[in-house]
Design a protein that fits this description.
Pfam families: DUF1963. This is YwqG family protein. It comes from Nocardiopsis mangrovi. InterPro entries: DUF1963 (IPR015315), YwqG-like_sf (IPR035948). The protein is an alpha+beta fold. The protein has a single domain, classed as YwqG-like (Hypothetical protein YwqG fold), CATH 2.30.320. It contains six helices and 13 strands. The strands form two sheets. Strands 1, 2, 5, 6, 7, 8, 9, 10, 11, 12 and 13 form an eleven-stranded antiparallel sheet that branches. A two-stranded antiparallel ribbon has the order 3-4. A hairpin with a 2-residue loop joins strand 3 and strand 4.
Amino acid sequence: MNESEILPQIDRHCTDVLGEVGGPAMAALVRRGHTIAPVGGFDVPAGRSHLGGSPQLEPGTPWPEVEGIPLSLLAVLDTGALAPWLGGDLPVRPGLLNFFYLDPDLPWSEYKHIDTEAPSAWRVIAADPEPAVSPLAPGAARVYERRAVKADPILTLPGNWEHAVGTLDLGPGKVPALEAMEIRTTWGPSAPDDDKTSGHRAFGWPWLLQGGVVGDGDVHLLQLDSDDHWMWGDVGVLYFTIPADALRAGDFSRAVCRMDCC
């Protein structure tokens, strides 16, 4: 993707929508990210990245669970394959990132006592690619079909309800969240023309279904949309974020997962 051509387009667009003061401030929030989609035809897989299937963990890593219920492996991101585009937006290269979540299709009676909004309901586990192995899931774990994925570079702006947008100074009487509703948030060859399609994403700014997702000082790791393989609530979206200082330290125990649905 030719970033030098797209960045001036973003600057002009933001200035047209938000004015000479707020426009450049919005454009300065641009972050690099990737759209994530199953490979097809002549697509090149993003290293060892995939949706579903088995995790890629260092030998001896216990399978994550909550109160005896094994979590489900949702995705693996090969940050080595993403790093060339992300550059400084990926301050460390943690190798393989495994994303686990409590299976939303479990019978309610089995986990109604579990706080599904607590960190125990999800896990992000980093692994060194060199010794990583693919352990078999415990018998009770839900295993989704494995789908190798491609990762296409995009440039992203925050959605209008993100914290970063709310702090913009657009002038007297202007509410940033309302003024920014017409901002196009996704740019690049793989970006949807109407900017209304969510899909799966890694890093950058997420596509917002409802409210803001990325808090002050947070980094967006992964966005998983509802599709033919899984459903988050009522056709919702699952988001994983992490504080920037935790990402730099490689402390993925501080990752946060959030589900938004219609």
